[in-house]
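Help needed: design a sequence for this.
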């Protein structure tokens, strides 16, 4: 394995025994993340659901299948991206993450982002978008744009589960957002990540 893969594996092993918040008492297992340690694109969702909690892999249910389909439409394989969540443990009954849970867990995500160093970060839904952009604005107002973010590019879009509930309109908007991801990858524009800024903490 590469050095990055080794360090991700060590971080995942640490997370597997995490007791930083109350979700440790209700989870089946930690869902740390999955994909290529050399990914150009990293997806950040909200939290594991039932199937993810059972299998230990993010986005394995119906939402995951839709994500795979959208990736395929822009010529990207799931094996070539990295997928994680704001929370590494499933909230009971798939409720929304609580602020103290996000606070307890965000360090793992920050380290994943630092190690993988993707060119594009795609936030799926409100919680990931608000955390990374530090804006208390809903996804419907932030999507459809590419944001400069820590020397990278950030593209917010809906969570695939929202498209499954919301039908063709939301799915069409997600396709527009994935096309933005493709365009950024094709242009390969942007500057290198700033290591000094990274040390200050991207979520502080």
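Sure. Designed sequence:
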């Amino acid at each position: 394995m590469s050095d990055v893969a080794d360090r991700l594996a060590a971080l995942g092993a640490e997370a597997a025994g995490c007791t930083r918040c109350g979700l440790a008492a209700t989870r089946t297992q930690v869902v740390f993340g999955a994909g290529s340690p050399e990914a150009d694109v990293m997806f950040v969702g909200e939290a594991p659901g039932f199937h993810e909690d059972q299998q230990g892999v993010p986005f394995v249910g119906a939402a995951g299948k839709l994500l795979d389909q959208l990736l395929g439409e822009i010529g990207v394989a799931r094996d070539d991206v990295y997928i994680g969540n704001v929370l590494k443990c499933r909230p009971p009954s798939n409720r929304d993450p609580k602020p103290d849970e996000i606070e307890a867990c965000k360090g793992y995500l920050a380290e994943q982002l630092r190690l993988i160093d993707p060119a594009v970060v795609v936030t799926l839904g409100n919680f990931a978008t608000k955390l990374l952009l530090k804006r208390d604005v809903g996804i419907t107002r932030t999507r459809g744009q590419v944001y400069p973010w820590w020397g990278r590019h950030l593209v917010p879009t809906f969570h695939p589960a929202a498209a499954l509930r919301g039908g063709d309109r939301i799915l069409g908007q997600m396709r527009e957002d994935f096309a933005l991801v493709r365009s950024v990858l094709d242009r390969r524009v942007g500057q290198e990540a700033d290591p000094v800024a990274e040390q200050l903490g991207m979520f502080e």
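Residues 189-200 have pLDDT under 50 and may be disordered.
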